[in-house]
Amino acid sequence: MTDAPIAAATTQILSAEAHPAQKPVVKTFFDEATFTASHVVHDPETKAAAVVDSVLDYDAASGRTRYGSAQKIVDYVRELGLKVEWQLETHAHADHLSAAPWLQEQIGGKLGIGADIVRVQEVFGKIFNAGTRFARDGSQFDHLFRDGDQFQIGNLKATALHVPGHTPADMAFVIGDAAFIGDTLFMPDYGTARADFPGGDARMLFRSIRRLLTLPEQTRLFLCHDYKAPGRDEFAWETTVGAERAHNVHVHDGVPEEEFVTMRTTRDATLSLPNLIMPSVQINMRGGHMPEPEENGVSYIKIPVNKL
Ligand SMILES: [Fe+2]
Question: Where is the Metallo-beta-lactamase domain (predicted)?
Answer without folding.
Answer: 35-225
